[in-house]
Amino acid sequence: MKPLASSALRDSFLRFGERGLQAAALALLALLLVKAAVDISHHFDSWWYHLPWAARLVGLVGADAYLFEPIAAARYDGFPLLPELLQGLAWRLTGRVESANLINFVALVAFIAFLRHFFRVSWWLAVPALLAVPLVQAHATSTYVDLIANLAMAAMVLLAYLFYAKPDTVRPAPLVVLGLCAFIAAHSKFQLIPLVAIASAFAAIPILRQMLARPATDGMARRPALALIVFALALSAVFWVPLKNLYLHGNPVYPIQISVLGHKLNGPEMLPPEDLGGGAIESSNRVTKWFYSVTEIGMGDIRNVKRWTLDSAAPEGSPLGIQGGLFGAYVILNLLVFAWLAARIPRRERFVAVAFVGLVTVLAAVMPASHLLRYYMFWFIALISLNLYLLTQQHATAPNLVAGGICMVFVLIVIDATDQNFVRPQFRSTSDLLAERVDQRILAQLRDAEPVCLALDAASQPFLYASIWHPGTNYSIKAGPFKPVYSNEVVQTCENRRVVFTPRQ
């Protein structure tokens, strides 16, 4: 009877541990949901262009009521705008601009559901594993577009891996999800479009193999012409933004100015400079800077709150001005865990796993501004998710509980190191933000029916003066030149509009 009693005690302990992790994971998601729903975004890019674009796309603010400053206007013409469209729809449906934050939170929950459905990863394990990443915590309740884009990109990478590791998984459902994720990633962030193309090309190989291997009586194999048409339409939809830019502007990456075979393509904005962010190693190559950034070498004490920001701005004295955000110790732990897990899976699957991690790592490291990790956090999200999948393959509850417990410890470390800034609801409303940032002296100079150009100190300020925030007013604002300028090319005249400057003390 003793073995039976021991087994029952063990099972009871495992159930208790699982329920404890479920409760903790649910509490984390609940905190993020409340924060996303009630806290107004206060970040620079949100008010420079994400929220103005969202308002324009769904008709909350007309094109005549608020005119973007030059670089934001050019980006609106050329950048992918899917996240801003979704943010605008959430804003319009609820009547609250705070609801725009929910898009990233919903994307995170959808990715967790994706891991559960296609990789059998328990949700209560995926939640702490992903939220142990500071950038994931930070972006889950923001209006920045990096998280939704990188979650879609990570899902593409994981499905491509699965098609190689287990060819029998090439089925209609994952193919549809692969196409949807490619569409979301390519329509969310310009930097990911080349990576979407590469991932699509790699995924196409096992897909074509499976189609050709199927009997002629099986579905699409009987209709290759139809399959080709569907494939062409899907590619056109995924890469619609660069195709549209090529047609309208003669430059697939407009407004980014690039040269092809010595011919300069039209665009008012340059590629991110190699010394973006500055720092002692700003002149190093991309791979070196990426390595410093993911490992967080030289950034100092993790309890320094200045280390953890939405934009990955590093504290003074760091090797790079923009560095970190993935939690270097957690990165190293996941790389070690991957090596340990890969050694315990069948040889063919091990080769595929190592090859994919290696390829994705190289791609992430060599991309422009690769050390700005919020642009390319799909790499770490995919690595974490692959580890969870390989761990789940063991079909054992105890290792999952241990892994979940370790991840939860890292989550608590991040929460403490960031002073709970990314998870604690502050109940800061739009009214609070307007009261803090709107200068009544500027507002007093805005008159109904008079076109005005606001030449303020920061590009994030003008939209707060749009008439949508000030009931009873009806005036037209153009966001004009601002200081410090984003780049020399941005400065343009305000044409014939009366110019309002930031009052000086």
Describe the fold and architecture.
With 505 residues, this protein is mostly helical. The chain folds into two domains: 2-38 and 90-264 and 324-417, no CATH class; 44-68 and 438-505, no CATH class. It has helices at 2-38, 44-57, 70-78, 82-94, 102-119, 123-131, 134-139, 146-165, 172-186, 193-213, 224-238, 240-249, 286-295, 328-342, 347-366, 378-392, 397-417, 430-437, 440-443; strands at 66-67, 259-260, 263-264, 451-455, 476-479, 498-501. The protein has a four-stranded parallel beta sheet, with no helix packed on it. Strands 2-3 form a two-stranded antiparallel ribbon. Strand 2 and strand 3 form a beta hairpin. The model is unreliable at 484-491 (pLDDT under 50).
List keywords for this structure.
505 residues, mainly alpha, two-stranded antiparallel ribbon, 19 helices
Summarize it:
The chain is mainly alpha-helical. The chain has helices spanning 2-38, 44-57, 70-78, 82-94, 102-119, 123-131, 134-139, 146-165, 172-186, 193-213, 224-238, 240-249, 286-295, 328-342, 347-366, 378-392, 397-417, 430-437, 440-443; strands spanning 66-67, 259-260, 263-264, 451-455, 476-479, 498-501.
